[in-house]
Amino acid sequence: MLILPQLLLIMLLLFALGSALLQSLGYMPVVGLKTLSLDYYRALVERPQVLKALLFTLRYSALSAILATALGTLLALGLTRASAAWQRLVYLPILAPYMVAAALVMHLFAQGGIFSRIAGQLGLIGAPAQFPLLVYDQAGIGMMLALLWKQTPFIAMFVFAIVSRISTGLGEAAATLGASSLQRLCHVTLPLAMPTILSGFLILFCYTLGDYTIPLLLGPTVPNPLSILAYQTYIHPDLKMRPLAMAINMCITLLSLIAAGLYAYLLRRSEQTLGGERDA
Amino acid sequence: MLAGCNQTAQETSAPVETKPVSEMSFEELTEAAKGTTVSFYGWGGDENLNAWLDGFYATYLKENYNITLDRVPMNIDEILSQLTGELGAGKTDGPIDMIWINGENFRTAKDNDMLFGPFLAPLPSYQNYIDQNADDITLDFGYPVDGYEAPYGKAQLVFYSDLAKDAVQPKNTQELLGFARSHPGMVTYPALPDFTGSAFVRNVIYDIVGYEQFMTMEADKETVKAAIEPALEYLRELNPYLWSGGKSYPSSSTEMENMYSNGELIMGVTYAAFGPTVNIENGKFPETTMSFQFDSGTLSNTNFIAIAKNSENPAGAMVAINAMMSPEVQANRFATLKTLPVVDYTKLDDAQKAAFDAVEIGAGAIPQDELLSKAAPEMPSNLVPIIEEIWLEEVAGK
Questions:
Q1: CB nearest B262 (choices: A29, A112, A217)
Q2: How far is residue B101 CA from its own chain's centroid?
Q3: What is the pLDDT of residues A149-205, one digit of tens each?
Q4: What is the pLDDT of residues B297-340, one digit of tens each?
């Protein structure tokens, strides 16, 4: 019974993806483009702006996902000893929209923000412009702060479920055999939880690659995050630029698909490992 | 359900559509428009304008023509995108009637046969009150209007600064450089392709290399780049003194205005000539804000209303557009929103003139005659995206 709505969703997705693919190949009859070619992909490679955008996007997506995964895993380990109330408090940012995270970072870290004002009151800086540029900066620090605030608790929740199961099951078994808590962590808990941790990382990485909100609100003008570049190309008044925007979108989709494939692979492996544990 | 609704709509409008709308007289149009709803798609970021459209203008249409206005706030790129989709799918009774449009977007829409028209000839307001020979009526960013859009309002670029922080205002680009140097980090402009940011850069170009050469320039990237090179050089020289050292720019004019409001910036730029006054009145800008222009002039343009090719109600749209161009509505808009009117003052009778004369602009504004005496025409619209592209490559972050 559930297959029908699923099928409908998949059909919609495939239809959208298909028409984006067609447009990226230069097929847009409404504006008189009717021949298929790889010209627009070639144009992408030839534009230095696109390569810069791609590298920048990969960098901040990977960096923020790595940091969030590391911090989130540490947090999950800490939570195994915390009360339920603490857990709920830690998970709170998961409920907040990304826009709220962006607003938070802007109010705190912008040159006209709270920290800048405090520094001004303390006489550390003379004018707002002297406060270090942490938002709209070319390293993407502001974006990453907002992403970390949202994503660290997500990883914590994601990893906590499995970590708590391991430490009460195999973890206790290892303890009875005389393993210290550090040994249990390094030789039992982390290796078993690793596929889950990695798939958490991939979920974040994929999301951030295509995210538009955070780059729009906190990103720098140059280098341009990929999603912003795609949108700017899409809204270009010359409709014949549309295929170029779609080609950028197809690149984002391809990167996400690769990551999703990895995710599926890891998921299968972790099921096998944990299946073994459950049997024991 | 939906099919039923469509049917009744067709039944009620069927008798009057025996004659094509393009051949109707204005009386026949008003008759056909009676009791209908007209949608007006356009940028919805100006709360004051939204309130005026929903209030005065909607009431005016209802009382005079029994037309209901349905204002749909949407960015122009999304409107054109939706229209492209509808036309591509062969939809003939589209929900979009009136569209607020100008410049590059008008050129694209007209070139791709997305607009209804020409529709200006039967409209009495156009015949009686609009100067049909003026360049800013017949041309839209250098592109012939040909009756496919009706003038809606005029805009002119002005700068504004806080006199409490610096009593001197720059009169040209060289003085602006000195101004930015003495207030490092407190001057900036919105990142292109933002509309206002793009206009700022064009104004800088005009001040440095003049505007005449662009009116006939070929839309070729290398040609344009060679012509604006001195201005690019200037903008790069300006960068280190800008907010964030010219590494980043606010992503929209709204963001720049907010930064000015909370004191991060000392000056700003807007395409709404009396915008600073409105912002002083509503308490957003400090009372010491004063508008200024370059001596060589600032950009001016007219913005227009067009009708979608597949509009369900072109007759209603034409009647509503005629009302928008009437002296009564233009005078009310001028008084409420301080938008420069499109009617030709010399064509008005004394009572109509008095309505415009009675408007007090308010604090922080450049007097209207001085403002208009320093107006420079907009560049041909096909050069605009080229300049935006060059700016991203050659100026931003350099």
A1: A112
A2: 7
A3: 999 999 999 999 888 888 777 777 887 887 787 888 888 888 888 888 998 999 999
A4: 999 999 999 999 999 999 999 999 999 999 999 999 999 988 89
**DSSP states of A125-173:** -SSGGGS---SS-TT-HHHHHHHHHHHHHHHHHHHHHHHHHHHHTHHHH
Of B385, B392, B396, nearest to A236 by CB-CB distance is B385
**Whole-number average pLDDT of chain A:** 87
> What's the CA dihedral at B336, B314, B1, B14 to 10 degrees?
130
C-alpha separations of A264 from A160, A270, A272, A273, B392 in Å: 20, 10, 13, 14, 39
Residue from B112, B260, B264 whose CB has the most chain A CBs within 10 Å, to mutate: B264
Residues B207 and B169: their CA atoms lie apart, in Å, by: 16
Helix A190-210 with A242-279: angle, nearest 10 deg: 160
Max Cα–Cα distance, chain A, nearest Å: 75
Q: Using CA atoms, how far apart are residues A112 and A131, in angstroms rounded to an integer? A: 9
Is the sign of the CA dihedral B78, B84, B88, B89 positive or negative? positive
Q: What is the pLDDT of residue B352?
A: 93
Q: Return phi, psi of residue B247, to 5°.
A: -80, -35
Instruction: Label the pairing between strands B375-377 and B298-308.
Output: parallel
Give the residue among B140, B382, B193, B111 at the shortest CA–CA distance from A234: B193
The alpha-carbon gap from B380 to the nearest alpha carbon of chain A, in Å, equals 14
